[in-house]
Structure formats: structure tokens, C-alpha cells
Amino acid sequence: MSETKPIPGQIGWIDLTVPDAEPIRDFYQSVVGWQAEPHAMGDYNDYSMLPPGANVPVAGICHQLGVNERIPSQWLIYIVVADIGASSQAAADGGGEIIVPVRQLGSQGAFCVIRDPAGAVCALWQSTDS
């Protein structure tokens, strides 16, 4: 996630979830010059992608495994919210579907993945810095 304080309603992060992350990681390294920073996810790595010469990542490339197994292959935006529980409930009450229930991401914060009534998928993110 970004190093600046997250603002509710803002896009805070973007991940690409795919069945096999390594060839897609290599594709974006070749096409846009991103450098990969691996993140151990148990027996495999997901990747934070950094622009050339930068030390702050701009996106992630993730395997469709574990918590991501139900996420379709797509770029997934994370929208910052002030209260993940309330926003998740509002999504369900408003005709959306909870794809990945609220879960903690270490000490960084919590997220969930939703599908809106039109079928579009996004994640909601509440940082511990919010």
C-alpha cells in the first residue's frame, strides 16, 4: 500500500490476480519496466511491482491461490474506507456480494473483496493508519 495516509474514497492500491504470476510479472517487467519485489505467501511468492528507479511499489501481481482463489483474473482496485465492517455490510445490504470476507492483512489493516450489483469486482481497504 501507499506510504501516504489513506483517505476514504481514494484508490489505495491495485493488484493483478492471475493463475500463474511469474510469466505475468515478467511480461510487465518487459513491457513497462517494472521491477519485482517478491513477497513470500507460504510456498509461493506474490510480487510488488516498482517503477524503474523507485523504491515504492505501484501495484501487485498475485497468484490466484489462497485468499485470492475466488478472485477472477483481473486488475483489482482497493478502495479506502473508514470502517471496513460497516462498508462490507453496506455492500451486502445494497445488493452486492462478498467474495472474500473481511480479513486482516498483518498489522497493515483489513480488506474484503466485493462484487457490486452490476458484477464489477473491487476490494475495500481499511488501513490501521486511517
Task: Please give a structural write-up.
With 130 residues, this protein is of the alpha+beta class. The protein has a single domain (11-127), classed as 2,3-Dihydroxybiphenyl 1,2-Dioxygenase, domain 1, CATH 3.10.180.10. Helix content is 17%, strand content 42%. It contains 2 helices and 8 strands. Strands 2-3-4-1-5-8-7-6 form an 8-stranded mixed beta sheet. The radius of gyration is 15 Å and the shape is globular. The model has no long low-confidence stretch (mean pLDDT 92).
Q: Write down the overall mean pLDDT.
A: 92
Our estimate of the beta-strand percent is 35-45%
Roughly how much helix do the residues carry, as a percent range? 10-25%
Shape: globular
CATH architecture assignment name: Roll
Number of strands: 8
Helix count equals: 2
**End-to-end separation:** 13 Å
Radius of gyration: 15 Å
The strand line-up of the biggest sheet is 2-3-4-1-5-8-7-6
The main sheet comes to: 8 strands, mixed
Number of domains as seen in the coordinates: 1
List the helices and strands and how they pair.
Layout: E1 11-18, H1 21-32, E2 35-40, E3 45-50, E4 59-63, E5 74-80, H2 84-93, E6 97-105, E7 109-115, E8 121-127
Parallel strand pairs: 1-4, 5-8
Antiparallel strand pairs: 1-5, 2-3, 3-4, 6-7, 7-8
